[in-house]
Structure formats: C-alpha cells, structure tokens
Design goal:
Elements: H1 2-5, E1 12-15, E2 28-29, E3 32-39, H2 46-65, E4 69-71, E5 74-84, H3 89-101, E6 108-109, H4 114-126, E7 131-133, E8 149-151, H5 161-169, E9 178-183, H6 187-203, E10 206-212, H7 221-230, E11 234-238, H8 240-253, E12 260-263, H9 266-269, H10 271-274, H11 276-279, E13 283-286, E14 295-296, E15 300-301, H12 302-312, H13 321-340, H14 345-353, E16 356-359, E17 362-365, E18 378-382, E19 388-391
Parallel strand pairs: 1-5, 3-5, 6-7, 7-8, 9-10, 9-11, 11-12
Antiparallel strand pairs: 2-3, 4-5, 13-18, 14-15, 16-17, 18-19
C-alpha cells in the first residue's frame, strides 16, 4: 500500500466565481466520474475548507491508483470540480446550482461547516443530486426530510457533551460543578451548545457564564474576564478553528487556569503548536483518531491512512479529522457507484442509503434521515508535549488542569 500513500494531490480543479465556464462538464466524461463541491478556500472557514479539499483529493488519488471505480464492466477514474464559496452561504448555494445546472455535475461532495451545508442541501435536493458530506454535523440537517443528503460524521450535539460526562464522572458531587460557555452563533455551534446543555441539566450542574462569541471570532476577553472573577470548574468553547485559536491565544495572554477546558477544532487551529502552554490539558472532541482499530481494503488501517496523508502533506504534524472524514465521503461514493453498477442518480442514491461498511475512519451506516448512526465521537486531551491522548473514562484524564503561568 505504500506506493499509493506517496501520491500527491488528485485530479481537481478550483475555480473562483469570476472564472466560471459555460462549457458543459457531464457527470461521466470518457473514463472520468466528476464529483462537484462548493468549498471554503477563502473567508472564515478557509482553514478547514483546505483540510477538507485535501482529504477529498487524497482519497481520489488513492482510489484512482488502486484501479478506480468499476461500473458496468468498465473502469473509471474519479475527479472533483471545486468552486470557492468564500465561506458565504448564499454564494455556496449559487455555486452548487452552477455546478449542477451549467457544469452537469450529478454527484456532490459537501462543503465545509453546517451553515454552508444547510445552504447547499436544498439545492442538491431540488435537483435530485446525491450529496455525501463530511463536514456538516448539525443535527437539524437530518430533520428536514432530505432524501439525497448523507453524512459520514457524527452529529454535532455529541461533540462536547462527553466533556460534561467526564466532569461528572470525576466528581463526587456533579451538581456542584459550575460551567462557563462561549459559542459562535452558527448552526454547528448552537447544536454543540444544545448537547452540552442537555448534559448539564442531566447532572444538575450550574451554568455561570453563557456567552455568544463575536461575529468575527477575534475576541473572547469579555468571557475570560468573567471567568477569572467567577472561577468556573469548566470552560466550554465552540467557534470553529478561528474561535479555537482566539480562545487559546487569550487564555494564554490572560493566564486563565480553569480546571477543565474543552473546545472544538483544536487540531484544525493547531493550538498545541501555536499556544503549547495554554493548550496543556485542553480536552478536544474528534470524529476520528489515527489509533482507531478500524480498517478497510482501500486505505488500510487508520494509522496507514494517517501515514499516507502526512506523506502527501508533510506540513501536518497532527492530521485534522476533517481530512479523514472527507476521504471517507469519497470512499462512500466509490462503494455506491459499484453497488448501483450504473450512473442513474436515484440508483446511486439508493446504493448510498444501503452502504454499511467498516472503514479506516470508522463504521458507516446511514439512518433513514441520512446521518451516520454507526460511529461515536471521541475525546482527546493535549499533554505538555503537545500530544493528544485518547480519553475514554475520567481515569484517563489529567484533571484538574494545572498550568503554571
């Protein structure tokens, strides 16, 4: 498998709005199946948009180098056509329609973030285009009755509720625990908050700070100033990679030493590299870990996928789960095309709905609503060396967090 792990970026095309082409790109042209994606390569989601694109392209390279996709007795290569949605929902919807109506794309890979997915899902649904997405975790995506939307990742209400469970497990009196929270107002973070609040209520904990992060995610000093005064036991933060970076930076600058700090997007924001002192002890939810004991015939084990992706992208010291789940989404399409054994959209859609498999990313099985019901969330803690340690019970956790500023 090593030869395919060393491959570079796959066949893809990134276009901006100003470079639209009026030429038709059919769903299958010659021996190539072209998937489409509106993805955030600029704007506030650019970091994770790039992680996602690289995950898509890496999977395309590995699949193509392993023989491609076999349909109707013929072998096809995969490719992806991208447009940069600039992290703007309205633009994402416009570009999704452009891909489908003008470029002839009949199978979609999702954008980055729940908000962008919420903007694009109605478009793919309207035209009956199957979309397998990897980055929209909002549970509300799967309450709309969509028939063409499928997600490989766990839903967002599960992201940080595990931190509350761990806090309760580590305390002789969970009801005495005081919680501070700061969330972006986007759909993803609001769902994360809902899951956290449900867990807090389950244990009878007290919320002492419940703040909304500013729209540009550049300052959470107001929340941290209150936290210094109120001394909560836990700080919970969700604001994508920019929010995580802001939180880590200001926790360091303001010398915040709350016993437990949990936040989303630690890896994507590289908090363990940029703010190693503050990040010591952070709890970080993840959709995937490279030590996972899962494997498949295409990518091998989780560790082998991780090794191959890092060989293709040496800048990563820790691979974000966004890239792993993006690769898993492409793999679902391969399996569905081959199961359908034809390119009819409804047949492919039905084949996707019937996918049930183990992959390097974890188990995948879709509910009738389209979400993956076979894979849990995982929680990891950053140690003083900048490594991520899997936390399965409170005994695995360094608590309370102690940082000598």
């Amino acid at each position: 498998m090593i030869n395919k792990f060393m491959l570079g970026v796959g066949a893809s095309l990134v276009l901006t709005v100003s470079s639209f082409t009026t030429a038709t790109m059919a769903k299958v042209e010659g021996d190539t199946i072209t998937l489409g994606s509106s993805i955030s390569l600029t704007g506030k989601y650019a970091t994770n948009g790039l992680h996602t694109q690289r995950g898509y392209d890496y999977a395309v390279d590995v699949i193509n180098s392993s023989g491609g996709v076999k349909v109707g007795g013929k072998t096809y290569k995969l490719a992806v056509k991208y447009y940069d949605d600039e992290s703007t929902p309205a633009r994402g919807a416009q570009l999704a329609e452009r891909l489908i109506q003008q470029d002839g794309i009949e199978y979609m890979l999702g954008p980055y973030s729940s908000g962008m997915t919420k903007a694009i899902a109605p478009v793919s649904e309207k035209f009956g285009v199957p979309m397998v997405e990897a980055e929209g975790a909002s549970r509300s995506l799967f309450t709309q009755g969509y028939k063409y939307l499928f997600a490989v990742l766990s839903t967002s209400n599960l992201y940080l509720s595990t931190a509350i469970d761990l806090a309760a497990e580590s305390s002789s009196d969970p009801s005495s625990i005081r919680v501070a929270m700061a969330f972006e107002s986007d759909p993803f973070s609001m769902d994360v908050r809902a899951g956290v609040v449900d867990a807090i209520n389950k244990y009878g904990m007290k919320i002492v700070i419940d703040d909304q992060l500013p729209a540009d995610l550049s300052d959470m000093s107001t929340t941290l100033t209150k936290a210094k005064a109120l001394k909560p036991d836990i700080l919970i933060v969700s604001g994508h990679s920019k929010g995580a970076a802001t939180a880590a930076r200001q926790i360091n600058e303001m010398k915040i030493n709350i016993p437990m700090i949990a936040m989303t997007h630690c890896e994507a924001a590289k908090v363990q590299e940029k703010f190693p002192k503050a990040a010591d002890g952070f709890l970080c939810p993840t959709q995937w870990v490279e030590t996972l004991s899962k494997s498949d015939s295409m990518f091998g084990t989780a560790a082998e996928w991780n090794e191959g992706f890092k060989a293709a992208h040496p800048s990563y010291t820790s691979v974000p789960y966004q890239s792993a789940q993006a690769s898993a989404a492409v793999y679902v399409f391969k399996e569905a095309f081959e199961a359908a054994n034809k390119f009819d959209q409804d047949a492919v859609r039905d084949a996707i709905s019937g996918v049930e498999m183990e992959t390097f990313y974890g188990d995948i099985k879709f509910s009738d609503a389209g979400n993956n019901i076979a894979k849990p969330m995982f929680m990891r803690q950053i140690n003083a060396s900048g490594n991520y340690n899997l936390v399965e019970t409170a005994k695995d956790m360094a608590f309370p967090r102690k940082v000598a500023y």
